[in-house]
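PT: before anyone asks, these are the final sequences, not the draft ones from last week. 677 residues across everything. Please model them as a single complex and drop the result in this thread when it's through.
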Amino acid sequence: MIAKQEPKSFGEVFALLSRLYREEGAVNFLKLCFTLGKTPTPAGRWWMWSSILTVAAFLFVMYQLVFVGHSSFNTSSDGVNWGMAISTYVFFALISSGLTMIASLAMVFGFKQFYPVAKRCIFLAIITLASGFAVLALELGHPFRMLWAMPTGMQVMSPMFWMGVFYSIDLVLLFIKFYLLWQEDWDSPLSKFVGAASFVAVILASGMLGLVFGSMVMRPMWYGPFTSIYFMLTAALCGAAAIVVTTYMAYGFDRRNMGPHLRELAEGADLPKVFATLIGITLVMFLTRFWVGLWSNLDGMDGFHALVRTPLFHVELWLGLVVPFVMMLSPGMQTKMSHQMTAAFLVLGAMFINRYEFIIGGQLVPMFKGMWAASLLPYEPSATEWALTVMGIGMSLALYALGEKLFHLSAVPPTLLETEDRPAYA
Amino acid sequence: MAKWGMVIDLEKCVGCQACTVACGMENTRLPGEHWQDVIFFQEGEYPNTELKWFPRPCMHCENPSCVAVCPVRATYKTEEGQVLVDWERCIGCKYCMIACPYGVRFYTEEKPRYGGPDVKAVFKSGDARSWDPPWRAPQEDWRHGVGVQPHDVVSKCTFCYHRVSKAPKGTADLDPQNPALREFTPACVVTCPTGARFFGDLSNPHSEVNKQIAYKNGVRLLDHLGNKPQVYYLTGEGGSVPAERASKLKV
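LR: through. Structure below.
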């Protein structure tokens, strides 16, 4: 799945594409774009199938939005205003933030052993954020209106305004950072500055996303500064899980295909230690949140009682957090690929449930609707909402496969190679 | 500048919901899109239980959380105190619906509230409006959230902005008993058969609304949240408003 060669400038990219177009003709060129090369590769297959999935889901969503409108969502003014589309957006946005945090381990904080995943992290951060934005755009009533109404409105009191500002800055910085890494500029002052600025932006962005919910005193299940911290730290966990899954995917789930630096990271205890620490922190926060929720008599907190009675809650807690925690702590299991993979998959699943349960659960108790409204609102995502989620996941997978094919995502700084006197791998 | 506010006397309110119907007619609302609703709630437990109610328009808060959260400033507070939505700015993010403690906001694009028929599908719109009702009130002012709304925006009670904004300057009370002022008075106040609603200038110490609040201990809903509603309730001996969100979860 790894790119053999990487064009080094936009000029080269266009030259390459136009040469291919001239040599192959329009039909073959499109076919090549679809399969990503003449010989079948895992990246090509991932790209093809994920693209088909994304396009199919997108077309279904568009059909529904054009002919039915947002009524095809199961959200309602009487209760669950923000449905699964928003929880999917939060899921992706926080994965993106977490990936930038993991990249920062090497690029900002100097933990050199994490360099082999840094470039992949930055690329994934871009595409997961793009997927999140795509899902959000289709959820919004008037997404394009936002482009002029936000800068002209300047409602600085709104957490959502700042969320937009910080995530936009984050996306721009990620693009610049990835461009610099593409140009093999790992250590220039500019590159270091952009890395540090990205880290600051991503802390602000994920924290602000937390405050979109945390500022809501009328929604006690979300309220409080804790929500911001919760989002930042669980983002880091999502980032760690995503990079484990995607790195193994890139090498066909076989460590022998990896370069020496990456294999060292995968086989060593550092990665599972970071992973276990993040799962542990998440577990503590998760239990703290539910303790307060179940203990408190405050009006509106009753939703926590309902949440712990759902099977999803127990899947998330026991299967999605406790089992991976044990796996990543145990010296016998933590370095095995199969266990790392299983743990990462379980954590990603748990975090998807977590975002869903956080956002939907926080709205389950109706707001001042009287006794004619159900005391606990029924909500199930509609087919359109599911399709939107599938579209987001498909888009991430497709763009990831494309990235693996086009870029050398496992690149490390040349200085790292020189100092350790190891042959470069490509 | 007036600061419009409402007083609802719960000792006089009989829960007939004429206000809800009048509002729906005046503002051309969809079935179930009750800008003005009457909330019924239960106090006590069986056998010592009582069914209570109170009308709930938008509170047009002094510190409206919906205005603060709107990322595009589509929701705003006028100088005269009404909280309105500019339908030409609204992006339909629904954050204001999340942030309103009183649940008074509605999103246009939803499944029909009463299980159908979907009135919007029956009276399909051929223009920018979200539906084409067989009869609609003549006024339309999208910058102030008045009229039949376009697709994918949030709507809410305007305190009948199209009527109240035309009231003569310096009016202390919009009393529907006064023929000269009746057409400037909100529809729910005009229609209330028991005269349980008062509408006037909260910044004028001589207004009837201020007198009622002072003499009969006006209270505001969920006052602890600090939104400071401009709608006051007089509970007296017979009426009450809930201290909580009026729907207790049985778990």
